[in-house]
Design goal:
- There is one protein chain.
- This protein is an alpha+beta fold.
- The protein folds into two domains: 260 residues, no CATH class; 225 residues, Alpha-Beta Complex (Aminoglycoside 3'-phosphotransferase, Chain: A, domain 2).
- Helix content is 36%, strand content 21%.
- The chain contains twelve helices and 16 strands.
- Strands 1, 2, 3, 4, 5, 6 and 11 form a seven-stranded antiparallel β-sheet that branches. Strands 7-12-13-10-9-8 form a six-stranded antiparallel β-sheet. Strands 14-15-16 form a three-stranded antiparallel β-sheet.
- The chain starts with 13 loop residues before the first helix and ends in a 5-residue tail after the last helix.
- The N terminus is likely disordered.
Length: 497
């Protein structure tokens, strides 16, 4: 913690307080959904911290940047915290630890939240909470963004707000953390204007695992919103951080810490809409056609506002090498795929020899769960971070729009596969085939690009995605592995002209 954390009368020296808190975080972080090192014991090191400016002297709003070196791969986590001198009953479930020290002591002792806090006469106790659940943090974070504020940098790290929309000095009235997220923490904020008027709610995504460089979720959605696209929520702004990194020439690096957008109430993701349709025996052709059109529109806008590159020979070779490497890995984990090796290689060879379109920025992890159905009936795309397992530098490079198209085609197959899992003996294969065809029709009609004229290239990307799915399923849901393996067999052995 920085010296500004603790005033001159505080019994807590910075280093002992930090060490005690890191020990508590090592127990607390593995229980959080966003923590990626559950297979190993955390080994935490504080890289830096920063305080967010705000108007409440009774609470300190701070953020620790914590490097976990306990696993095979180190991960840098963003851990927002609030430190209070009094226990707050409504935040009890988000209490991380209570740290206490005697006046004049150079150390801090900790009690876990499950134990009673015993301070003794004259002792001081600091209650440390998960900041994402504390209204003080939400208000300070949105102020940082909408007022273009900055932290002071005395903790070795900095945070700077970058507002995208002018006239948004909003006040947070209430806030709650969205449940169910795996890798980030999104806070839904009810807000009002300085005049006290209610405003469209804001959702602020706090990136838990930090990476060097710009986050594509921020870059792509901000670019689309700035271009006037209605296919993404309106952007409010973002937070950029700087911290120590010995791998960089100057020992410093930067990356996005948070991203705020307008929150769309009353929406439902396309996965649920599609699953409801198949459960009711209802066609999804109209919806899939509109989704194809919306996808083409987003790709068209991204190609207009962000750089594109021509598919040079080394680019094509790199993509195909990645596909073949994934194929080999999938066969090792799902040996039954080996019977299609020759057919898969023929598709890859045909794709490699085909004319390739320009590469551009794309969604990168596109499926029905990344699309929202609005009350007005339109489709809105969200979560442009790309595949979580790919390095950030790869996710920020131009790619083929076909990767997104293939991802959505696979998602329709998964709706049918999910239905079959819960309805033994029944099939939704025809439903999926109709939805797939309608999606392609919509995309072609909006873009003017005949995707079916170069089918081998699209099939190669879909096979690649299905191979990725096969690896995931055999590791996590073995009973579902037939969904991607059936797709590989169908696509690899499709009659060719």
């Amino acid at each position: 913690m920085t010296d500004s954390v603790l005033n001159e009368t505080s019994p807590f020296d910075s280093e002992p307080f930090d060490n005690a808190l890191l020990g508590s975080l090592a127990e607390w972080m593995p229980r959080q959904r966003w923590f990626g090192g559950k297979a190993s014991r955390p080994k935490l090191r504080l890289i830096g911290s920063f305080d967010l400016p705000h108007g409440d002297a009774e609470v300190r709003v701070t953020t620790f940047l914590v490097l976990d070196e306990g696993g095979q791969q180190s991960r840098l986590y963003q851990v927002p915290l609030t430190v209070r001198g009094d226990r707050v009953p409504e935040y009890e479930n988000s209490l991380i630890v209570a740290l206490s020290a005697q006046p004049g002591s150079d150390r801090a002792d900790s009690d876990t939240p499950t134990n009673a806090v015993t301070t003794g006469e004259g002792a001081h106790t600091q209650f440390v909470y998960d900041g994402t659940h504390d209204l003080a943090y939400s208000g300070a974070l949105l102020d940082l963004i909408t007022r273009d504020q900055a932290s002071d940098g005395t903790g070795g790290a900095t945070a700077t707000g970058r507002a995208q929309l002018s006239g948004h000095p909003l006040t947070v009235v209430s806030a709650k953390v969205l449940s169910g997220e795996q890798s980030n923490s999104s806070i839904i904020m009810e807000v009002e204007s300085p005049e006290g008027e209610t405003h469209t709610p804001v959702i602020t995504k706090v990136f838990r695992v930090l990476h060097h460089g710009n986050n594509p979720d921020v870059v792509l959605q901000s670019a689309l919103a700035k271009a006037g696209s209605t296919r993404v929520p309106a952007s409010i702004g973002s937070v950029v951080g700087q911290w120590h990194d010995s791998r960089m020439p100057d020992g410093r690096t930067s990356g996005h810490l948070a991203f705020a957008q307008e929150f769309l109430p009353g929406v439902q993701d396309a996965w649920r809409v599609a699953l409801d349709a198949v459960e009711a025996g209802r066609s999804f052709v109209v919806e899939a056609t509109a989704l194809g059109e919306a996808t083409a529109e987003v790709h068209e806008t991204l190609a207009e506002v962000l750089p594109t590159i021509e598919p040079a020979g080394d680019v094509v070779a790199a993509v195909m090498t990645s596909m073949r490497r994934r194929h080999g890995g999938a066969v090792r984990e799902v040996p039954s795929l080996a019977e299609h090796n020759d057919a898969i290689e023929r598709v890859f060879e045909a794709a490699e020899a085909s004319p390739w379109p320009n590469l551009q920025r794309i969604h990168g992890d596109y499926h029905l769960g990344q699309v929202l159905s609005t009350p007005a009936g339109g489709w809105v795309l969200v979560d442009f971070e790309g595949e979580p397992l790919r390095p950030m530098v790869e996710r920020s490079q131009p790619d083929l729009a076909l990767r997104d198209i293939a991802g959505m085609l696979r998602s329709f197959d998964y709706v049918a596969g999910s239905y079959a899992q819960t309805h033994p003996g029944e099939s939704a294969t025809e439903w999926a085939l109709d939805a797939r065809a309608a999606f392609l029709d919509g995309y072609i009609a909006r873009s003017g690009i005949d995707l079916r004229a170069n089918r081998a290239l699209l099939d190669a990307f879909e096979i690649d995605k299905a191979l990725y799915e096969a690896i995931y399923e055999v590791r996590n849901r073995p009973s579902w592995v037939s969904i991607p393996t059936a797709a590989v067999a169908r696509l690899a052995n499709r009659p060719r002209r």
